[in-house]
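Re: folding output
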Amino acid sequence: MTFRRLLFCLLVVMSGCTQSLTRSPVNTPPTPSTQERAELRGEAYYSYLLAQQYLNNKQFDKAIEAYSNALKVDPQSPMLLTELAALYLRQGNLDFALKLTEQSIQYDQNYTPAYMLLGQLYAGKGQTNQAIEAYKRVIEMSPSEEDAYLLLGTLYAQERRFDEAVQTFDQLKAIVPDNPLSLYYKARIFLDMKYYDQAEHLYRELLAAEPDFENGLLDLAYIYEVTDRPRDAERTYLKILSVNQANVLARNRLGNLYMRENKPSEAIQTFNQLLKVNQKDVESLLKIGIIHLQQKNYDDAINDFTHLLKEEPRYDQALYYLATTYEEKLDYEQAIRSFRLIASGSPLWNAAQSRLALVFAKLKDYPSAIAVLNGAITKSPETGDFYLYLGVILEEAKQYGEALAAIERGLEKLPHDTELLFRKGIIQDKMGQRDAAVDTMQQILAAEPKNPNALNYVGYTYAEMGINLPRAKEMVRQALDLAPDDGFIMDSLGWVYFKMGQSKKALEIIMDAIKRVPEDPVIFEHLGDIYMEMGKKAKAAEAYQKSIEFNHTEPDKIREKLNAAK
């Protein structure tokens, strides 16, 4: 079998750059030797030639009839049995193909093509261990049979028996040093194991011999992406497209890369090129709409999603993003209407109900928001987000008792849900139950010692209470290590230092926090308190003024501080 043909066959077995290796039979009929054909009896040989003619004309039923006639004359011919089995496999009749192949082996236990087909049949039926044994038998009988090594190696990899797979491909390379497939599939194994350095080395070796080998280039580009080398990935995709502009996978991945790298113009251009090939490419149309949404080009996004829904009226992703676009545009009436159009059987229904409730909450229509979530809970009582959002909305409405009850309902169903537990602690805090809130956060930390939100809450609360300050600093530092760009945790750490009397250090950290969260009223209150402690009243007054402008929940308290700073 040629390199390109076998590669095509094996790609059916090993598919997808990031997917595990999958199984599928390779239904390529064995090619009989001249001696095997010569050994057929006269009438059998005539029927055999007739079968070949029918095969060439794709008259498969007549080919089966001709093979069957040949077998009437020569019923113990392993070649005829194996070729007929391959033909039945081609038509999807695995069971009868397997029966004929096993019969062939009974007549000749050393007939290599029968064992090759047997391996493919076992693999197709999911009997991987039997398939492995069949290919091992082929290699035992015919150590130079390259295809057997390749197929055996892919099966080992499919079973995640990676050491045996690598050993098999190494054996093939030792026998046939110039076979690039041994390198390719060995590289795929390392890729599947996430050994990116080893995989990259092998792909480079392969591409030195086959520089335009698209599957190798695609895998190498994927390695560049997951190892944070977007420019190398981009160059590799462009190289593929310079040779083969019709490579849809490369162009789609390139467009996705541009989206992640915040290059909207390049992404839209790439997806538009895909649409030139297929005007009804709904995935590309959807992504263009998402890019317009991200750019806040709401009218363009609405046009994109509306056009897509005309092509695919039941495409819920487009409907969900359309509703989201209306919400972002503050057209809440259309957002509500669109979210409600998503059917209860849709995978997006849960998300749509949550968003619908939040839209009502933005309108301060708390009864409607609560009704939506209670209805959703009735239909899907195991969905934690419904209880979480219900609690948040009741909390926003300052109905703290009802909010806590909603969270407790969720915890009855999902007692270990840390998001529900965290919200419970926050609500307890707002109800003045600070000790209970700390206990709830400690319950989270018992299950998830590295939960940054719980660590931050307990550390900040200790600082607010002026107790356990060394432990508070330790906990907030740990939280910041886990979430280094979180401005709120930075604020907590600054506040701990302030409570420890280290105002200069506190100021430095709070200023970093403001860079990340530039409009938070509590952080500006903290900044004002630090400046006041340092005797910088003018700067303190400026910070308190911003705290008021950013809608501090206790404006009267901040005004008192502002007056004291003047």
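--- second protein (sequence, then structure) ---
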Amino acid sequence: MGTVLVSRKPSTANSLSIFTKRKPTRGFGFNSSHVMAKTANRQQAVKNNKAPSYDLSQVSMRPQAKLTVNQPGDAYEQEADKVAQQVVQRQQKSQQGEEEEEKLQAKSLAHTITPVIQRAKSSKKAKAPKVSTSKNDSKKEESPKESPKQKEKAPEVEPVKKPEADKSKVEDKKDAPDKGKGKENIAETGKKPEADKSKVEDKKDAPEKGKDKKKKAENDNKDYKKMVGDAGNWEKVKKKYLKDKETMQGLIKFRKEEVGKIINEVRTSLKTDAQNLKDIAPGSTDLTSDYDVTFDAGENKSLEGKAVQEFNKLFREKWGKESGTIFDTNVYTTGHMPTGEGKDEKEKDKGRTQWQMTEEGEKKSDKLLDEMALLKIRRNMSQSQWEKYKKNMLNGIKDKNTKQETEGRLKKVELLHQESQEELKNKASKLTKKHESLLQKLKSKLNNKDKKKDTEMAANNQLYESYLTKVEENLTELEAVRKDVEDQQVRTKEQAKKLDELTLDLQEMRSKALVFANEAYHTGGAVEHVVLNQQMGQGISISNNQYLQSANEQTGFAVEQINHHENMGMALWKSSKYVDRLCDAIDNIHKNHKKEGFKLPGKQEEMSNLATELLKIKKSKDKNLATDKQKSKAAKKLAKDNKINSKEQYLQDILSMNTDVNQQIRDKKDDAKKPKKAGK
């Protein structure tokens, strides 16, 4: 039964238009027979040239409730669909005989409809519900659905102007008018509107849609914080929930929101905002991916270090563990990444750094960053693997002086490794008791093995923070000297020497800090190659020395994954993105150095193709590759099809490619420092 509207006579100045609400039928506005009778009396009065009277005593002056518009697909709409289906069934039965049809007509459908207030259409002009929809009205009026008594009772209702809907009370939605019209037609005429036919035809799909809505509602009500807390770390979260895609997506959303909340708390604490302290998360969004964040404060680099320290502090206070443990989330400064918006600004910042260094300073910088990139390989190798790697690299270098210089760098790498391991050990031992106390206070659930990992991660984070403090001090001094030089527009020898020293110190402190930053690149070459160019598409110009830095760091990460996973298949697909990046770095070196006789390693093409296929397995959404076990089985089969029968053989092929490119670049070192156009 629809809303019936009664309006005043259009041109009468003293006329009154009021909704009458005397004993209304709940949910549908008015008692239709009562209103239609009143309407008929008023129409008769108009014919007799008498002004229609209005009984204002029947008008309710109580405040009216604000109309509520229900959501598409809710319980009321589903009920309307059900009634529509009943109407269709009754129309079919009516063909069996007028007697049966009269019985159906006599039974009202209104009692089966749950009351709900339907809003009026938002158009300014509207007509009252039509008695007939056919061109031939007389035929429709003689339809067997209407008895003569019914026709006498219901007087014709002339079209009247409909008052404008109160916009403050009616929410403007495109689909709501059609829903209201559908329910009015069902209740008043017993006929199903054409718009509802698609709903009846789609009834087969309703159970599936219902399941999806139910699943969504269940996920919205899940206590994700408890789920993460009970698991204890993100690895266990993935192990438990990765098969349930909807739940895993909910957990990932929760992770992002929780990290975002703490980042906002960091900004509040440091009295800054999102414009001056950006958070960048350029990594993958796969269900298995980590969620790392880089703080970018533009030229205000010291603010980035403070943000990292404050984030780690707030996270520990809230969760009792490191963000890398709970969410597989680590926070960083921009480190070696050039500052500025877009390619041009970043190129300008790189040029500014190069401008402040002498040629001798640049050579020292290349040496330092080369050692820091090789340190990534050393940290993830056993002592025996490292000795074998050094021997193979040195044996392939032809130039005697180059071999001697490379040997010196490899010795420095070993020394850096031992120093960093000693620092980490000392920090972890100091943290153990304090960390244990914090875990107990917050009732965090970790077994002994996981506690050791979390304590080690906390030690790494705190060493990272301590080096960032040194970076901040260095930046302050460097900026002061650089400003003096820029103001004078002349650089003295003393100032040039000082700029070299401070810039090299800055690069060393940044690299050492990044040694302790979980899963971070140590060098600018790797950052620019992967983060800026591959992930963010900036197209930054990169030299061959920088591509070599990236190739060595990708090798180090691949070695870590292969050594860590005993299962061959898992070692293959877990390391695939690093092997793919290694191959990309080598491809770019080849393009830039082709004229100088650089040759691709023997297995470059084969390994590149294999890495591409392994990445497809890693990122696949196929239900047959949903679990780690399924991915590992597929990866192992793929490797055997490519004649790789063990993870040791796979590792050896990767290291063979790495030593080959190192030998060629080091023998052609004079050209390697020249910036080249960025690759893909």
